[in-house]
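Hey, quick one: can you model this chain's 3D structure?
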Amino acid sequence: MSILKEIYNYKLNYVKQKKALFSQNEIESKIKVEDNNSKKFYNKLKNNSSRLSIIGEIKKASPSLGEFVKSDTDLVKIAKIYENNKISCLSILTDEKYFKGSTEDLINIKKETSIPILRKDFIVDEYQIYESKLIGADCVLIILSMLDSDQAENFCKIAIDLDLDTIIEIHNKDEFQLASRMSSNMIGINNRNLNNFVTDIKTTINISKNIINNDKLLISESGFRSRLDIDKILNTTGINNFLIGEYLMKSNNLSTLIRELLN
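Sure thing. Here's the predicted structure for all 263 residues.
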């Protein structure tokens, strides 16, 4: 069984357990949908289209590396450093088992920062989209490799109705073609293969070669280790939005590193 299938099965069971404790109807009764924050995440990146934008990711672990950040690391402090150094948006891992995150991480960071937040998790049930709205996310990630296209589109429409932005994450040309026809106005090209977790930034470059008349906002995700890596994407494809996590989280001098990347 691939790691992606393992995660999918685990997540279905995990969500089932959460529903038993706090039903979707209970979540919906607590949600307030306000139009004044419409497309907050998307607009932040779109309005920065003339310059490089980084989505700073906050995570403690990954399936491929295990825990690479101390369990008592102050994630709110890191989020504030991101914000103070002109990171455009935040990406917060809320998966418990594989990334050692939690919805509480997002809730706590939301209280102390003002830039838009992507809830990054393995969305397998519409319950998680309602939950994302309740905990304060501005955007959710929908991984096309885990879902069929109809289910992914349905999740997009639910998110839009809840005034949430969506990023459809893709890993190959066929998935890009599917994503380009969906309601989401953002596509994330993940340079990490979710079956073996190998990263290669050429994934973004190769997929971009076949993009014609695309009207989606594109984000290159994962695998960045220097400004040189960013420039390879920027100069080859014109994509100027980058989701970076592990490289930032491992830094001993985060403010300086961010300034170097955004130079």
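One thing worth noting: The first strand starts at residue 53 and ends at 58.
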